[in-house]
Queue: 3 jobs
Job 1
Amino acid sequence: PVPGRVLAADLSRHAGHDVVLEGWLHRKRALKSVVFLVLRDRSGLSQVVLTDPSAMAGADGLTEETVLRVRGTVTENPQAPGGCEVTSPEVTALSGPAAAPPFDLYRPAVPATLPTVLDHAPVALRHPRLRAPHAIAAASVAGFRSALDTRGFTEIHTPKVVASATESGANVFAIDWFGSDAYLAQSPQFFKQAMVGVFERVYETGPVFRAEPHDTARHLAQYTSLDVELGFVSDHREVMAVLRDVLAAMADSVTRRAAEECALLDVDVPRVPERIPEIHFADAQELIARHTDKDPRGEPDLAPAHERFLSAWALREHGSEFLFVTGYPMAKRPFYTHPEPGREEYSNSFDLLFRGLELVTGGQRLHRYEDYLDALQRRGESPEPYAGYLAAFRHGMPPHGGFALGLERWTARLTGADNIRRTTLFPRDLHRLTP
Ligand code: AMO
């Protein structure tokens, strides 16, 4: 009896037997008296040998990327990949002849520019180097989840269509929702906070939307936000400690689960220090003023060049590829941010810089209802649109905090990608809505 589908990687276990292989025609080599078909499946490559003249003629019309089912005998051959090949095959095409790919999918270096890759993403992503970042992203998310699952967090899934913006400063997409005004969620911020009141500790991985009006190598209009929120923290430092452990688990998971992809892309998986160094925003500005030709003091935020400067400083002074910048000015943080006790113009919040780029934002939040009303009033905002959000705070919320990590930025920094679009499946931005 012929077993069900066998994967290329398992072929040698079936030596001497008949098997069924299914996959894509990866390469075809037609010689005078033999045709070699290299078949690709998710586990690797296998070699199929045709010597019968009519079978060889039947292979004439087969183009690379056509999906095939092959039934034949597994025969040992030390010259074949994996030491085995399939002989006396019966070959069936499961789809019509495949159209030629936009570029050679299996040349070691990608012979195409980023726009070509993105235009042809459904097939271009089959290239091992273009696929690898997404396998690394998957391994990262697996590490994120397992770190939080073992720490008593519950995974949640919250709406992506919302009635009010949460991230002041970030741009929001307005949509028509059955005749009412609605927005695409910029963050699960409100919901993850509310869910602290239910589960104490929650996390979410999901899409968020930012109407980014400019085209940069680090901004997308839709990205994947890895969100965490936890109750009963005394300040932002406890949140930073959780983030540190989560990053270590992500790095570890990448090393273990995506070893092949890391080797292919020459990924340098970072060592996450036991204690990630930190610098207060005010001290960071002093440092920049002292060591660069710009004096940023008085500015409410860090410029990208200053983030790169601080990252380089952390690597030099502390041997760390990660740096926490804490205490960002309240003026630049959203209304839910908790101020720094004793220095109310600063906040109990942080950014985490990784290899020169902001990777994470987080902090402690306000947790008392009256504090929210005050904060909104100080910003000249009505509490009305936030009524649903604020409801949680009228029913007892613990001191809490959390963070959000941009998955595509993490993968881009890991893989050394020059553009975040290289680590995004089907990116959405100012100029791109397809494929
Ligand atoms: P923030 O707006 O800083 O914080 O976003 C958190 C992280 O998301 C990533 N990021 C982006 N990635 C790609 N394209 C974009 N346009 C983009 N914008 C942001 C960055 C950033 O550090 N609610 C807060 C988080 C919190 O406090 O829990 C928030 O969304 O890696």
Job 2
Amino acid sequence: KTRIIIDCDTGIDDALAILYALRAPDVVVEGITTVFGNIGVEQAADNTLRLLALARPEAEIPVALGASQALVRELRGFSQHVHGENGIGDVQLPPSNQRLVSETAAEFIVRLADENPGEIVLVTLGRLTNLSLALDLDPGLKGKLKKVVVMGGTIFKPGNVTPVAEANLWGDPEAADRVFTSGLPVLMVGLDVTLKTLITTEHLELLKRYGREDNQAIIEFMDKSLQHYFKFYRDANYVINGAPLHDPLALMAALQPDLLTCRQMKVRVEHQGEHTSGMVVADLRAQPRIGEFIEVAVDVDAQRAVGVFLSAFM
Ligand code: BDR
Ligand code: CA
């Protein structure tokens, strides 16, 4: 079984990724760490606890609070226009009795990696602030994490926050550059591939009809929160009746890397440019010289990936 920590800014697609991880076979969720991004970090933690109460109330999976702002930048607002006021499409889930752990997100990541060297896969679904802080706490972290799967960035398609930057990297570009040049075994799953895996209203109908009986509450949550997400993608991106599974694809890739086609690339994340901050600069020259090698997803078997996602709930 793959042992994972999910680091997320629990918005709608983060929620889908968490629910997928709680239902997928062959995975142990060792903990969930939260970060600002789609919403504030406290709200991200509260959403996470409520999702755990909905999907796995008996498990007491540890949840840690992480960074409330970027390493050096002022907070530039949240993404409530995409994810709703509360980050999960304004669906009101019952509160949880579970408390947050007393460690910070960075401390939690460092301790788990230290206690289980070579075992833990960290899946980041938000800003890379917590992981950057974890590198400060333990410079030896790169030899202890098995892999870091990052949902973020884009190389071959436009960005979603600026013409060249994707939200998770744009929100803390200093942290992203630090992580990408740290020597950690990073797999970047960017917008250019996640935009190929759409969940549609037809898929939701399938889930409602064929979803397992004990998953009906989860499916009802997905249905309601996705209405918000569909509306945003229709109005802002002309996607009709569908929305991309950004964060779930990164999570699935951590468990089934063969869903993706990947390439080694040397990359840096721009953090000084006025119009280019958060952009992934990939050195695609025959003899790359800028940045460090990471693995980058360049394509996905989209039909299979969506099938894998849906089947976890059926
Ligand atoms: C990423 O940004 C967030 O809004 C989503 O949750 C996802 O992690 C997509 O750019
Ligand atoms: Ca996210």
Job 3
Amino acid sequence: MAILLKNIKQLLQVREATVDKVSGKDMKHLPKIDNAFLLMENGVISDFGPMSQLPESKNFEEIDCTGRFVLPSWCDSHTHIVYAGNREQEFVDRINGLSYEEIANKGGGIVNSAEKLQQTSIEDLYQQSAKRLEQVMALGTGAVEIKSGYGLTTEAELKMLKVIKQLKDKYNIPIKATFLGAHAVPKEFKGNKKGYLKLIAEEMLPKIAELQLADYIDIFCEKGYFDLDDTNYILSAGKSHGLTPKVHVNQFNSIGGVKASVDQGALSVDHLEVMTAEDIDALKNATTMPVALPSCSLFLSIPYTPARKLIDAGLPLALATDFNPGSTPSGNMNLVVSLASIKMNMTPEEAINAATINGAYAMGLSNEVGSITKGKKANIILTNPIPSYGYLPYSFGENCIASVFVNGKIL
Ligand code: NIG
Ligand code: FE
């Protein structure tokens, strides 16, 4: 049945279908309608407007939203929610003084997660991952990208991507899959990075393409992981199989990966905690979306992406969680939006734009989600009665969400 939300205090992020992202000064603007209604039919947003234009009541289920805000669901364009077990011991090791790098060098980190995942059955991996997906959906995430990269063998990478496919089949929010075979060099290839890259390009990629298990190709372009040559090699290989690049870059060091990714036509460059003037220049006039992951910065105590520098240079910016067992064991986009305002000096308008419309762009879902637009999926958030939308980032740690709708149905 059609659902009508009426007497909405403010309907946020109302956009024409032609707007696929917002940049620079425009990010300060969050288009809205006061005292509004929203109609959801057949899974999509079918109508909306001021209450004065409320359509003649048909067979609607009506929900009174007095004092509440409605906005599109969060679009989380960067996650690793398919993983096995957790790494809380490394968390304790870091509390006791070891660095993320030191832990990785002694066999912890990504390869630790890979060992766990290789020993986990596909059924168990699915169950663990489905639980996380349900958890983030309840927190208002209505579209998500999920990466492989904790397998690091052909079999285990395929296992991860098959789990992502199962999640796509079971859950009715848009899910995009990214192949991140080049996340770390596995133990078996220690001292033979080139051999591992060859395995990715010549064995993993053809199989993944044949089974149509991925939309995007990713690599961890970073000192101690993969360099610029590796990045160009893997992104080119991915593209030859129809996968568009989305790249982990500039988390700890700037080594030219931003420009390389832009030159490769990347849809997004993600992390960007360390940004030089050259990196920012490389993003100007590009179609690549910069993506910040502030809960990773919080958890690892590393710098936050210099959002002001990027936005003030006229660039767009998206926000995502990076939900993963090592650097960000949280998939809470509400916290991400708060951190963006608190730690990155983004206004509430900028943070909400970055977590909705720009997030949708960063995973190629602008046509389906990210704004209140007729015909887009009715994946929306209804807040509790709150004083203003600025209260969302302000009241960090408080749950302001009353209900989440997916395809026009209450979750
Ligand atoms: O995006 N930086 C690379 N990959 C993940 C973390 C990997 C891990 O520690 O498990 C990230 O932060
Ligand atoms: Fe990541």
